[in-house]
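ok so I'm stuck.
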Amino acid sequence: MITMPQMNALPGTDTTAHAVFETHLPLGGRRQGKVRDVYSLPTQAGDRPQILVVATDRISAFDVVMPTPVPGKGRLLTEISVAWFTFLRSLGIAPDHLVSTDVSRLQTLDDADRALLAGRSMICRAARVVQVECVARGYLAGSGWQEYQSNGTACGIALPAGLRQCEQLPEPIFTPATKAAEGHDENISFTAMCDAVGGELAERLRTMTLNIYTAAATRARARGLILADTKFEFGFALDANNEPTAELMLVDEVLTPDSSRYWPVAGYAPGRDQPSFDKQYLRNWLLERVARGEWHKEPPGPVLPAEVLRETRSKYEEAARLLA
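replied:
not stuck anymore, here's the structure
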């Protein structure tokens, strides 16, 4: 069963963009994140386990999932991720978990469920996920800029004096973070990451992260976008006995506006905030409610009006058009 709130299509959107808020499919191992619903897929004896990753139309801000979904957002996220997986495979930087987007293979589901899953789902190899967010930063923004103003560092890494907000760094930096089940991820030092996962693995992840970021930033800029920063997740592929192998894969989504900070190249100038291809419009709208005391950054979030949904969706659409 797939839950779709009763709502009209937004003006200017296609008729297939009915919102999917959450799914309850007849599959095992259901897990629900802020945006994605994940299921274990049935396998034959001797097969490696696979999962189904469904990108819903949920949207979160300030670590709160809003009660109103953005119609079609999950399809746009999936389109962007698949395009990036395809590009990165061509470079051979890192294996990934994507197997297929063909939901007709899911024979245990009925036609109605498969139709609604189409375009927003990835069949993937199962993995034992490394419990560290691998973050690459090429520009001084967000929490890195806030820390730099106080300490001259970004996530504990010393940076040259005199950098401006949103300025390009001399070279990209790797700033790992803990993976929080709830609330904010927390930045950690590379030394702490080595203690948590081992020095050899930490070095591999840093190298892979920076190599992927550099290649992706070059491709994005050629399409009119600056990739300011992004985060990746990695995991070890599971064997037929559900045990981790030595194969380290790129998993989850990749280089979408939900996991990355994109700015338009046109009009870019350091020293100020940049317009972004993400949910900043939603954040700004919410901050107005916070300023008026109407919301306190705690669940439940406020119901989102059509204008906010339309403007937010337009950013995802433009990112997909440029990147996919």
